[in-house]
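Structure tokens please, single chain.
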Amino acid sequence: MFLYHPSKELWDRMFHFFNTTDKLPTYKFPDQDFLADFFYNKWRSLGWQYNALKTMRYIHPNIWRDDEVVCLHYIVDKPWVTRVGTDGVAGFKGKDGETHTWWWNYYAEWQREREANGGSEVVAIVKQYVARDDGSEDDDPDMKAIGTKVQAFANNKAPEEGNSNNENQAPMGSGNPFAQKAMGERGHGPVRHAQGSGKMPP
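Here you go.
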């Protein structure tokens, strides 16, 4: 989540940094990495509810509460790429049926409201980018990059035959766990651990 108070002075400083930093070519996620560098040590921590990773629902059930979620982060595969099966299975691990169902329920409500208010044109545009009504998945490469095939797409190569550990990640349980890619972030660039004070200047 990113909240800030825009101003001409802030814009000028950001624009100057953007035009003078030599780090731009190194950014794997340019927008996020740029903001992380520009606002380095100027952040405030918020509870998990403000960036509730969908996988936390089953990885950390002891802290997750459905009714406390403020902003749900659909990491890894995106719910709009594939419909939730009748068995409730969704997501690359098959455990995201509930959170993906929330998205589809909101989408259906949004679609009804738009069509009722003469917004059929925008509904038709958005429909191009969501799974078909019959549940079939689009073969568009961009959709595969955010859908159920996201892990294979992000890794860019299949693991060698007979190799149970994916070549693109360290074997679980080896070395420092904080140096390894976090669950749900494999194939999506490095995880940046917070290094700020947690306090913003007044």
